[in-house]
Design a protein that fits this description.
It is a single chain. By secondary structure, this protein is mainly α. Helix content is 80%, strand content 0%. It is built from 17 helices and no strands. α2 runs antiparallel to α11 and α3 packs across α4. The longest helix has 42 residues. The protein is globular and about 70 Å long. The two termini are 41 Å apart.
């Protein structure tokens, strides 16, 4: 229901803005921009997202099937079982979904988007098998989606690389502020959904894991912050891709050890890649077109101007407002937010307050509406319950945390 109102709202706002623009100035270009946006967004959903995703899905679902038959996923499930049994009480003990969730979270943390998406879709499908109401999001699915939309990223290689390309004197100077902001958004996701689902967040197992993860992230942050920027980039890239390669080799080696037909297992799993992609195309087209129409109408610009007016009206510093397009676009479109980030660095400078804050915004959360359309669409979920609210809350917390740490570190 929430998605229905949001989807309709994007179109209504866009059309109202276009009509007002025409009534006030006689300008008809907004109408053309909106229509052009519908065609370009629908093409992008299929040609730039769905088709490339088909190949990636085919590869990783095949590898995941090898990992499951080899028992690697079950091993991961047993490792995180005590924690996930409290955070995801609907998942049975040692169920493969636990291992799939861990692999998805790990890929996201390492900035491996190409691997994280198919792993996440596989995990969502496993959660759907446990879901008694197939058209309604389960508690476990909402917790999984909320953590995903928080976008916890430990090694933001793409953002650091883009800062280097844009001429930043020290491309890695946003690393610690970004990590703090994305951690805050993830913690907010767990707390909000945990309260909604009446999970005891003070359980010693949950507290132990959260404190352990916090300590691990703090240690990793300290270590990486002591490295020269060139070495940090190299270490981040090698660690991310090395872990991914280790997973692939581990799955295949496990399959050989178990004496299964590795190639046949790969083919059996890979067959689901195309089927899954076909399912999500309508959801992607619908959501991306609505977002593109909203943006093309000029509504985004009016929204930013309104926020700036309100902030100035209460006497607060408005330096952060120029970076807000990245924060507002992030829940709607990853590519759109990336473009806003680059535009901010090009306009204000990569080492400016606005340029740095835009980069922190980009890495602090993930694309909420894209993830909802992608993951829920892949399993046919129509009733999202409070998943949208959870995702948007994590976006808000991540944005606020990004602003605060940017002022703390760079202002």
């Amino acid at each position: 229901m929430a998605l229905n109102f949001i989807w309709i709202g994007f179109f209504l706002v866009a059309f109202v803005v276009a009509i007002l623009s025409f009534a006030l100035s006689g300008d008809t270009t907004t109408f053309k921009a909106i229509i052009d946006a519908t065609f370009s967004a629908s093409k992008m959903a299929v040609m730039d997202i769905a088709l490339p995703l088909t190949g990636i899905m085919t590869l990783w679902l095949g590898l995941m099937n090898i990992g499951e038959k080899a028992g690697a996923v079950s091993v991961l499930s047993r490792i995180v079982g005590p924690f996930f049994s409290k955070l995801f009480p609907e998942i049975p003990k040692n169920h493969p979904a636990s291992g799939q969730l861990l692999m998805n979270f790990s890929a996201n943390m390492l900035g491996l988007d190409n691997a994280a998406t198919p792993l996440g879709l596989k995990a969502m499908n496993s959660l759907q098998e446990l879901n008694p109401n197939k058209d309604t999001a389960s508690n476990a699915q909402i917790m999984f989606l909320a953590i995903n939309t928080s976008g916890l990223t430990v090694i933001p290689v793409a953002i650091l690389a883009q800062r280097a390309i844009m001429g930043a004197a020290n491309p890695t100077d946003i690393f610690i502020p970004l990590l703090i902001a994305t951690y805050c958004s993830t913690l907010a996701a767990i707390i909000f959904v945990g309260i909604k689902q009446k999970i005891n967040l003070f359980n010693k197992v949950i507290l132990g894991w959260i404190l352990g993860i916090t300590a691990g992230l703090a240690g990793l942050t300290f270590y990486l912050s002591t490295l020269p920027e060139e070495q940090m980039t190299i270490v981040s890239s090698v660690a991310s891709n090395g872990i991914l390669l280790l997973i692939i080799c581990g799955f295949i080696a496990g399959g050989l050890y178990k004496r299964i037909n590795v190639y046949e297992a790969f083919i059996d799993g890979a067959k689901d890649g195309f089927k899954t992609t076909i399912k999500i195309v309508p959801y992607l087209v619908g959501m991306l077109v609505a977002i593109a129409v909203f943006r093309a109408s000029g509504a985004m610009g009016y929204l930013i101007d309104g926020i700036a007016w309100c902030v100035a009206g209460v006497g607060l510093n408005t330096d952060f407002v120029a970076a807000l397009p990245t924060a507002i676009m992030k829940p709607l479109s990853g590519s759109g937010a990336r473009a806003m980030m680059v535009e901010s660095m090009a306009t204000y400078g990569a080492d400016s307050f606005v340029g740095r804050l835009s980069c922190i915004f980009q890495g602090s959360t993930d694309t909420t509406f894209y993830i909802i359309a992608l993951y829920f669409g892949s399993v046919g979920i129509k009733r999202t319950r409070y998943a949208v609210q959870a995702g948007l809350l994590t976006d808000l917390v991540g944005a606020i945390a990004a602003i605060l740490v940017a002022y703390l570190f760079f202002h």
